[in-house]
Amino acid sequence: MFIKRDLTKARALSQSAEQQVKEETERVIRDLLQQQALLDELDKSSQLEALVFNY
């Protein structure tokens, strides 16, 4: 009886931990994509600036 209850509790905790990891992973990926987009814009801006100054 106790083992079954403990197993059920452990499964619930495991699922909760999996969900938290999934959410955190998704958040990190979103942040990285956002940072990459900003870096891409900065790179484009730098390239344009170099073109203007070298003209």
From TrEMBL:
The protein depicted here goes by the name: Uncharacterized protein
State the taxonomy lineage. Eukaryota, Fungi, Fungi incertae sedis, Mucoromycota, Mucoromycotina
